Amino acid sequence: MTGLKPEETKQIKGMTLRRDPAREDCFQVVHSDAEMQEWPGMTEISQRQRIHRHMNNETGAIEIAAQCLVDFPEAPWELRMHLARQCWDESRHVAALYQRLREIGGRKGEFPISCFEWCVTCSLDSLAARLALQNRTFEAGELDLLGQLPTKWREIGDERTAEVLESILSDEITHVRFANQWLKLMVREDRRLLLKIAMAVRFLTTVTAALAPQEGQLSPIGLPFEAPQNRITQVNVADRRQADFSDSEIDEYLRQSGFQSIMATSAEG
Amino acid sequence: MSLSVQQRAEFVATFRFIQVFLMETIARWVPQTPEMEVKVLFGRHIWELAQQADSLGKRVYELRAPLQFSLRPVESYVQVLEEFARTETTPQKISGFYDVILPGLAARYRNYLELTDHLLDEPTTRVVEKILNEFQKMIKESETLRKELPQLCLADKNWPAHLARPEVSVPTIVAHRPSAAIA
User: Between vectors from CA A134 to CA A72 and to CA A262, what angle results, nearest 5°?
Assistant: First the structure.
């Protein structure tokens, strides 16, 4: 989707994506979630795998924000300040998760990693589209996940990880909020950006479908993939509001996520 | 005689240009650098450099230039920066930034403090002194990381001199302009 040079791209299942960012040799970099190990429950290996995966996602978030600073030097200074701040926040998240990973006996490279968010987001040629995907979609999705995860960790007696995740959540709200606020402003000034954003969302949908596991395919640890309808995370309405999603945007998201019945109940009071 | 308001604005705007250039350089290095701990270090310092640029950009406005105004330094210094930005290996990037470029810039900031009137230009001196303290902290963080991960230390101990030589050979970095170009 951008004027990337061929050496900056990779071809995966017929899709042209931005090439993966640099990783140390200890990491096995895979191209999709279908190739990731996802251990069920909250066993010791599952705990390490969850933190390892989260740590790499946060690393990707530093890289995406940093690359936006590089690729869009003409963006308003206030917006660049937000991106620079985001680099710092995501760096602290990586450091905190890496510390926690080592404390529970894990190590860098113990599990395969995927840089999917970087490969998709940094294929886009406008800052508005990147903010729409990285901050408003991926990070907003993280708000939903992080709304639930601390409870899971507390249930197994891991207060420290729960605290780390809660701190990350509060930072991520800020990242989603500044993206929402700037996107509204940018679109008000240039309606054509809506088309760029719509194309970015369509691009994400297409890539996600192309890289999804095939029917009957087993995961790398030999388990069947969970059906998409069973993977739906509870929408974190309160924090999405904090992040400046409007009520109508939240309603629309709930509708798309298959929560019509809850919405009806809630509307009935 | 100390610096005029316009001269101060030129210095501050030049410092801002350099700060933004450095922020963009280490931002570019984040995805290109394999080591996760170095990505974290650079990510932290992108924000430091941005805040420093922001303080200078607010101060330059008080010196009768546009808000967040940057002034491109003299060409010989730009060449030093561009050569630095082309650094390839992680140990060279770290050494180039924390052992050469930041200390070199700190020396230029201290030189500014010697030149300017500390009463009339106290707002700038406060901004610059704060930046100098932060530079020390940034350098210290890089030293701590290099102690933790010795593979990040330079094998070629002469390499910093290769970058430092052209840096110190540029006596003044401000490309003075006619006043109309600033105001």
Answer: 150
